[in-house]
Structures are given as C-alpha cells and as structure tokens.
Amino acid sequence: MNLDKYLSNTGRYVNENVNLASGTLAWGMRATKRMQEFPDFINATTGSATEDNGELMVFPTLVEETQKLTATQLFAYANLRGNSSFVHAWKKDTLETYPQELQDITDKLSTLPVTSCGGLTSGLMVASQLFFNQNDPLLIPNTRWGNVDNVFLKNQRLREETYQLVDKEGNLALSSLIEKLKSLQGAEDKIGIYLNFPNNPSGISPTFDQVKELQEALVEVIKPTVIIIDDAYEGYVYENEVLDHSIFPYLVGLNENVLPVKVDGPSKRFCAYGARLGMITLGMGVETEDSKKAEIREMIAKIARSNTSSSPRGIQEALTNILTEPVKKQKILQEKQRNLDVLKKRYQLVKEYVESNESKLLYPVKFNSGFFSYFLLKTQQTATEISTKLLEKGLGTIPFVNEKNGLNGIRVAFCSISTEKINEALDILYSVD
Ligand SMILES: Cc1ncc(COP(=O)(O)O)c(C=O)c1O
C-alpha cells in the first residue's frame, strides 16, 4: 500500500531525512556483527558506560530502590509537571553540584524542573516546540550527537547555523560561536544556541576562563536568545580547571535577552538510560517573581502534556526515595564517585597513550570529560574510510562526517571499553594507515 498520499509534510520530511540505519546505530550494529566473527574484537561504539566485565554500569542503590517500588508507585500516573517531591529533590540535587556561592542565586533565578517523557531527547523537543518556529536560526556545533539534527533540523526544521567547536589544533574554541552570535544580532528576531558540555562526540568541556568569555559575549546580546543546554553528561569531568558541572548557573541572571534552558535527566546522571525521563528547567535573565516562574513552568508543562501527557512515575519515585533520604543519598553519591573513578582511569590511560604515541593519520582533540575520546584526521581520507578499516582490524569506532560543516573525526567510546583493553584498542587505532 502506498502511504504517500496520507502523509503530513512533517511525516514526509522526517521520513525522507531521518535515517535510522545511519550514524551511531549503524556503526554499533556493524561492530556487534564483527564481535560474533572475531572473538577479540573491541567494541568502542557504545555510548552507555559499561563495567570492565562488559555489564552495564549502574547505581546499585537505584537498582535496589526500583525493585522495592509498589504497583501504585510504578503504574499510577505521575503529576503532569513531575511529582512534586521529585522535582524539588531533583532541583536540590542539581544545585548541590554547583559552587556554594552560585547555589542560592541559581535557585532564585530558575524555575522548578518540569518532567518530559522520553529522556533528554524529549526535553530537547519540548524546548524546541516552546521557543522556536520553523526556519529560526539555531547556532549548533559541528561536533554533535546525530539525534540533535533529527530533533531540531529534521523534525522541527530550524535553520542550521554551524559553529566550529574545536579548532584545527584540537582545542575547544568558542570564538566561532561568539562571532556567529554577533553576526546574527542584526538580521534575526530571535536566536537559538545549542550547547552540550561535555560534548558528544568530542569529549570536550570548557575551562572556567572560556565560560567567562561566553558570559561576556552574552551580556552584549540585544536579541532574544534561547540557549538550549544539553546536560546529558554533566559531572563526568576528569581535569581540574575545567567546568565540572552544568554551565547553567553561569548563564542565568546575565541579560534580559538571554534565556538558558537546562535539559537534563537520569539517563547518564544515574545511568538510567531506559528510564526515558527528561527534565526542563528555565533560567531567568533578571529576578522574577515566584508567581511568574510558576506561570512559566505551566507553559513548559502544557507543551509536555500535549506531546506525551505525563512521564514515567517509577523512576521519579525511586529517585525521590534516594535523594530525600540522607543515608541513601550518601550511598548514591559514593556510587557516582566510584563510577566516575572507573571512567577517569580509562580516560587517563587514553591520555597517556596519545601523549606518548603518534599516529600517521590521526590526532586527538583536547578531550577532558564525558564518555568519549575523539580524533581528527591529518590526511584527506574520510573518517568513514578509517572506521571501515578499523572494523577489519578489530576495533569498532564511530565516524562523524559532514562535508557541509567540515566534520571529519572518529569517536572512540572509552566508557564502554574495559580498562585492560584500552591500550590494545589504541594500538589498533594508531596502526591504521
Ligand atoms: C549529547 C546528548 N544529548 C542527549 C542524549 C539523549 O539522551 P536520552 O537518552 O536521555 O534521550 C544523548 C544520548 O546519547 C546525547 O549524547
């Protein structure tokens, strides 16, 4: 049956432009296939953290708490805005990751979070629907997670205004973003910016000096500017001097024309990828009355309501029990530190390797955080060609290629390689020619 005559414009456009068999999913499947043929194959394609024995990394306290949920806690509807005790606990948990002196002011200058059903991805979609029209400009880094294109460019059809996140030497550079932001001030009525630190795929986060540079540019903004802050990997940071929590508290209270929208959730914060819960918190440019903040929160909730009605309740109940009970909270913080230590060890092994070895083809960007290491190419070959060769040699990687915006790099997910296999994986990576 030909469905064409039944399709909406969005349905048709998304069908023609979103490719479910491309990018990370497709390369992940290729790697899984190679693992069956080749027992020593190392799969560095997976973007979920795993233990050294290959099992999914979890938070045992959350697993335990989830198993104790009653039928009502699991299966009854949740509040449309998120269960009240949960959103308060989530906000508190987030604020506690900020430096002491920013906690009260950020609390004052932001709404309570609103839940959305469908992980951070749904939070990005809700934010897009609330703030942007088709063809509005979105400043978006050239290194980005593929589904960001699907949400903002292919489904919502915003206009792509790319900024280069990483310079030719592999350093994070905010100059491209800042220049573009300035150049859009004249002609546009409203501007969108998408920020994602630690970045997928590059594993880069800004230093505190770079955050300041961005703040200075935002203070000058004269057109309404909505900053979507994708905080999927917040807190996974391995170096000093680098922003080790969300950038959100530095972007509130800057300017009446700047609206930071924090999108976060338990997917990576608590390794609960399948829980499919997203959170949206709005930051205020200037002091705003509580009643107004509550009204703003209702606006977010109406968009979330009209998309997916309400969000999963079980994960909210389990996390509330943990975050509001001091002993459990202490336990989950220890588990967070333990998981971070595992990832940090792998990160350090990757760093040591790339600092003492040279590849003919690849050089690392200055990754410092997140789940991934990322490599640029020294030659004209494409990352796709290199990843194909690596598959044959026994290493699964993800190529990130986009000719239009100069993207050509390889992502190696140390979050899912066992610690003892890191050197072997990098030997394979650096042997490619
Ligand atoms: C940068 C980034 N944002 C958002 C997400 C989506 O998270 P979720 O699974 O909660 O939808 C991912 C997932 O990999 C990601 O890498």
Task: Explain the overall architecture.
The structure is a single chain. The protein is an alpha/beta fold and 433 residues long. It folds into two domains: 140 residues, Aspartate Aminotransferase, domain 1 (Alpha-Beta Complex), CATH 3.90.1150.10; 248 residues, Aspartate Aminotransferase, domain 2 (3-Layer(aba) Sandwich). Helices cover 44% and strands 14% of the residues. The chain contains 17 helices and 13 strands. Strands 2-8-7-6-5-3-4 form a seven-stranded mixed beta sheet, sandwiched between helices. A four-stranded antiparallel beta sheet has the order 9-10-13-12. Strand 9 and strand 10 form a beta hairpin. Helix 7 packs across helix 13. The longest helix is centred in the last third of the chain and has 31 residues. The N and C termini lie far apart (48 Å). Pyridoxal-5'-phosphate binds next to helix 7.
Low-confidence stretches: none
Order of helices and strands: HHEHHHHEHEHEHEHEHEHEHHHEEHEEEH
Summed over residues and divided by their number, the pLDDT gives a mean of 96
Helical fraction equals 40-55%
The molecules bound to the chains, other than polymers, are:
pyridoxal-5'-phosphate
Question: From the helix content, strand content and strand pairing, which structural class follows?
Answer: alpha/beta
Main sheet strand line-up: 2-8-7-6-5-3-4
Here the CATH topology of the largest domain equals Aspartate Aminotransferase, domain 2
Question: Any idea what the CATH architecture of the largest domain is?
Answer: 3-Layer(aba) Sandwich
Based on Cα principal axes, name the global outline. globular
Radius of gyration: 21 Å
Sheet with the most strands, sense and barrel status? 7 strands, mixed
CATH class call of the largest domain: Alpha Beta
Q: How would you name the CATH homologous superfamily of the largest domain?
A: Type I PLP-dependent aspartate aminotransferase-like (Major domain)
Beta fraction: 5-15%
Total number of helices? 17
